[in-house]
Every structure is written in structure tokens, then in C-alpha cells.
Design a protein that fits this description.
Oligomer: single chain
Number of strands: 18
Helix content: 40-55%
Largest sheet: 6 strands, parallel
CATH topology of the largest domain: inorganic pyrophosphatase (n-terminal core)
Strand order of the largest sheet: 3-2-1-4-5-6
CATH architecture of the largest domain: Alpha-Beta Complex
Radius of gyration: 30 Å
Length: 475
């Protein structure tokens, strides 16, 4: 690529950028009208020539006509006076029709039709190039605070939710790398076990260990970090004897009632893995293929391949990680074995589905694994005309209700809390939510233990919560 630049402005950041672009295959030629700028360019080793950008038509046309512009040449123009700039562009269109041109200009400009030109505002250069670096500087400071916090701690717990998902697992793995620890001094732990086949495949193929613990082990550790989860999400498992949280990083809506020395909650993000990717980028961490694969799968699974609850930051992180990851391992993780009982649960739910006002209700009965419930909820959104899926099932003494929507309707988290919050834990994001109701609470409220009654009451409670949310929004 060859660059020919007609320039009056200093634009030091722009000049440095062009210097960086220069290589053995690239060449740069400056045409300037200031002796000082000419001298500085020559000092940088950049070819430059002094010319005059004037109103004189004969001089202007002689300059433009004499420019050596080949098919692979990009002409860059940065002229202060708009009148002179417009005339230069007209001359370029006349003598070099359809020449690729980049114009550095803050104000709007009418471009000649016979010119392949694009306009760049200097302010956008700051926004697109400098501002992200400024944000990374602030992120780097937070990472430095985190490292200092754990510097003198011998053993650290990286606590994730019960039945951890890929986003939580990847975030914990990334955090351990971030603070320079290994699995001996920083343990990834959960109060539950990993059960979903694809998550078990992730642990096996990426050699990640997640240990199941009870609250009593906290006394053996002097540092606690919670990732992709907050204390209220864990219910009564956390007792008063648990040490204070040192660091909490999560993308779920913030819950009250706890303290953390450093807290980073970004509810607009689709995955906690995105936050950790930004941390690693801010400190120029050399992300391995194994770690990139884990983080990429964390983002991919929590956002349904960037199709649900996505922030621009998730897309940037995904794009950054994708060329670093092992796509063959990803394919093996995403296609685990399906147990025959899971197919039976799906079949039962399909037969007894019910659709009311674009809301699909389905009850799977007792399930072997809890993840069957959200899986079927995601699948149910593919039914034509369905905007909401409310899928329930019974698992280990609880009635678990998983709610999904298509992403552009009312908040699922608010509705689920309105509908089921007085019977158990309930909440979530705008596009996905969950309620966990102890069966004893449900039976105490309704008395009847028949499955048909459970189906009817779940639908009635959800529709009631839906109506309440609508009225509240209208008021």
C-alpha cells in the first residue's frame, strides 16, 4: 500500500499512526506547506516535500495533476481551509477519477461523485483509538488493586455458583491466571457439583478442576473471590462465619445485603468472561489457547452465540478471543452425549405444552438433571409465534421454573420476581430468569399435589405477575 498525504495539520497521533503503518511493502509521501512540519517529518525519516496550498487554480491543478497515484495508492487529505479543501478534491476527481481518498475534516463536506472518498472526523480518531486505551488504563488500575489485595494471602478461594456454568468456570480460571496463582494456591470451588454434560466435557478437555465444598472450609483460607455469582444467589448456604468477600466480579443484576472490598458488577454485559477478558487485555496478558477457549465458550454459552443479552463489549471480547481459541475443542465441548432420560423429559414436555398469549407453558415433572429445564426453555422459543417460554420441573425437592423471552419484550427478571418471589428465590435478567421454590412451600400454599394443579398454578401465577409488571410500567 502507498500513502500520499496532503497535510497542513500537526495531527501528531495521526503521523505516528502512519509511521507505524509503514513497512517494507508500504511507502509514505507527505506534501506539506509548513517548514516546521517538514523538518519534523524528515527527522522521523518520512519522505516529505514542501508545496503551497493556495487559492491559485493553476498551482493547485499542477500539484494534483502531478501526483503519482497508482491503483494501490490511498490519498489522505488534511487541509484547514474548507474552500481550498473542496477545490483540491474537485481537482483530484478530475485528474484521478474514483481515487480512494481519506479526508480528515471535522465539519460536513459535499464530496465529488467521481471520487471514492470517505470522511474521518479528528474527534472520532480520539473516540475510536484513544478512548478505549483510556478505559483500559482505568481497568489496569483496578487489576493492580486486586493483585495488591491478594499479594500476601497464602490460600485463596475462587467461589462460583452451585452447578457452575461455562461462564463461571472460565471466569475463575482467568482470574487465577490474572493474579498469577495456580490450582495449589487458588482453588476453584462451588457448593454444588458440575452436572451438565457439556460443562463436564469443558472441565475434562481443558483440564480444569472445580471442587465441591461446604462453608466449614472457609476457615482454612485467607482470601475469597466470588465470580459470576453474588452471596444472595447462594441462599442460606453462606453463614455468618464466612469471611468477608475480597473481590466480587459478576454480570448479573446487583443484589443488596453484602459487602465486598472490590466489586465489579456490569449488568449490561452478557457474560462475566467478558469482564475478565478486558482485565487480561488491560495488563497485556499473554492469553494461552486453553484460556482463550474457556473464555470464548463462556461468552458463547451465556449469550447463545451473541444472540441474547449482548453488550458491544461482549462482541469485542469474542472477536479478540476467537483467533486465539481452539475451535476443535469447542466443537467437542458443545456436542456431549445426551442421556435417554433427557429425551424422555423433552417428549413429555412437548406433549403437554400450553400456549397462552404467545407464552408457552410446559412442565417436565421430575427431572434427572436441573439443566434440562433451561435447555427446554431455550428450545421452546423456536416455536412459531412464541415470545415467552415458562418451563418448570421438579429437582431435589424444589420446583424449578426457567423463563426465557425473545429479547425485545418486558423484563423476565421483574416478572418472575413478581410471580414467584413470595414462595422462593426468583429473579434474573431482562431476557432470562429463574425461580426456585421448595416443594413444601408450594404444597403449603395450594394443598393439592397433583401435576395438573401444579401446571395450572404456575401459569396463573406467571400471568398474574405479567399483568402486574404491565400495570406498573404504565403507571
Amino acid at each position: 500500500m502507498r500513502y500520499v498525504i496532503l497535510c497542513q495539520d500537526e495531527l501528531p497521533y495521526f503521523l505516528l499512526l502512519l509511521k507505524t503503518l509503514s513497512s517494507k511493502k508500504d511507502s509514505i509521501q507527505f506534501f506539506v506547506d509548513q517548514k516546521g512540519l517538514y523538518d519534523r517529518l524528515c527527522a522521523l525519516g518520512v519522505p516529505a516535500k514542501i508545496v503551497s496550498f493556495t487559492e491559485d487554480r493553476e498551482e493547485r491543478e499542477k500539484l494534483i495533476k502531478g501526483l503519482y497515484l497508482e491503483p494501490d495508492t490511498c490519498l489522505i487529505v488534511s487541509i484547514k481551509k474548507q474552500g481550498i479543501l473542496s477545490n483540491i478534491l474537485k481537482s483530484v476527481a478530475r485528474y484521478h477519477p474514483y481515487q480512494p481518498v481519506l479526508i480528515i475534516e471535522e465539519n460536513g463536506l459535499v464530496l465529488p461523485e467521481q471520487l471514492s472518498a470517505k470522511l474521518v472526523k479528528p474527534s472520532s480518531i480520539f473516540t475510536d483509538i484513544c478512548l478505549p486505551k483510556i478505559e483500559q488504563a482505568f481497568t489496569k488500575r483496578r487489576v493492580q488493586y486486586i493483585k495488591e489485595l491478594f499479594e500476601d494471602k497464602d490460600k485463596i478461594l475462587l467461589l462460583i455458583q452451585a452447578d457452575p456454568d461455562p461462564d463461571a468456570i472460565a471466569s475463575a480460571l482467568a482470574f487465577r491466571h490474572l493474579i498469577g496463582r495456580n490450582r495449589t494456591t487458588a482453588h476453584i470451588v462451588s457448593f454444588g457439583e458440575v452436572t451438565r454434560p457439556e460443562n463436564l466435557a469443558m472441565l475434562r478437555l481443558l483440564d480444569i478442576q472445580v471442587d465441591k465444598i461446604g462453608p466449614e472450609v472457609f476457615a482454612k483460607y485467607d482470601g475469597l473471590c466470588m465470580l459470576d455469582v453474588q452471596p444472595p444467589h447462594l441462599g442460606d448456604v453462606l453463614s455468618q462465619t464466612v469471611p468477608p468477600v475480597d473481590v466480587l466480579i459478576d454480570h448479573h443484576p446487583e443484589k443488596p445485603g453484602y459487602q465486598a472490598k472490590i466489586k465489579d458488577i456490569r449488568a449490561t454485559y452478557g457474560a462475566t468472561s467478558t469482564i475478565l477478558t478486558e482485565y487480561l487485555q488491560a495488563v497485556d496478558f499473554n492469553i494461552s489457547q486453553r484460556l482463550a477457549t474457556a473464555l470464548l465458550y463462556g461468552i458463547k454459552s451465556d449469550t447463545l452465540l451473541l444472540g441474547r443479552g449482548v453488550d458491544p463489549a461482549d462482541i469485542e471480547a469474542f472477536s479478540y478471543l476467537y483467533p486465539l481459541a481452539n475451535t476443535n475443542i469447542l466443537r467437542r465441548i458443545e456436542r456431549p452425549e445426551v442421556h435417554p432420560e433427557d429425551i424422555d423429559s423433552f417428549s413429555n414436555a412437548l406433549k403437554k405444552r400450553r400456549i397462552v398469549n404467545n407464552i408457552l407453558f410446559s412442565h417436565l415433572g421430575r427431572v434427572r438433571r436441573e439443566d434440562v429445564i433451561p435447555h427446554f426453555a431455550d428450545f421452546s422459543l423456536q416455536v412459531e409465534g412464541v415470545e415467552w417460554a415458562v418451563v418448570s420441573g421438579i429437582f431435589k425437592g424444589n420446583l424449578v421454573i426457567s423463563v426465557r423471552n425473545v429479547g425485545y419484550v418486558r423484563s423476565a427478571g421483574i416478572i418472575v420476581k413478581r410471580a414467584f418471589g413470595d414462595l422462593g428465590s426468583a429473579g434474573g435478567h431482562s431476557h432470562m430468569a429463574k425461580a426456585v421454590i421448595p416443594l413444601k412451600n408450594f404444597y403449603a400454599r395450594f394443598g393439592d399435589r397433583r401435576e395438573s394443579t401444579m401446571r395450572e398454578q404456575i401459569a396463573e401465577m406467571f400471568l398474574s405477575g405479567f399483568e402486574e409488571a404491565i400495570k406498573e410500567q404504565e403507571d
